[in-house]
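Running this now, will post back.
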Amino acid sequence: MSLRDDIQTLAEGVRNKILILDVERLCGLTVQPWWDRGDLQKRYVQKLTVIREPRTTIVCAKWHDSPDIIQFAEWDKGGRRKFLRNVHNLISQCNILVGHNANNADVPWLLADFRFPRIGYKGSFEALPDLPPFKVVDTLAHFRSRYKTGLPFKGLDAALQILGHPGKTDRYDAEAMERAVAGSIEDRERLLAYCAGDVLGGQWLYDRERPMMK
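Update: finished.
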């Protein structure tokens, strides 16, 4: 059974526009002085040592009531500036945004990407306006709040496997992202497919747990 096979639909009459979303990022790079390897164990990253900040490079999403996966990437035509505009416009249309760890990762990362340029990115930047209000449903926060230590493994892949679904078919690969940003078509396709799979898995978790959510 694939993740797509068991995705549910909302009851007729529900009008909320629910967006399931996941992002992938390029990691940051820094230069750290050190005398001994122990100096690096609890290092503090200072701005002056940063070569490149982490930044969002892929966003995949789907409307809850649609089978189509929406895919945006920094390397799409129009570059990062158009990429962020597209994502901003998409989120502006939703009433509810669903994601796994969305409160601490996807949403704050994107909000900052919309407002601040990223060190190390040499293209043009345009600060975008505030988004219209929307509610975030964080499935990871739900697992932590409801099940606490009763469910010791709460990551997306682990939760899917525990609940009887196949889980992720791939793993995030930082080196693949480096190659994708540099122009590798194969790595771009692989990372987009990986992100899209997380969206499908995220909707399945949301549908399963929705009756227990506040």
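The first helix runs from residue 79 to 92. More later if anyone needs it.
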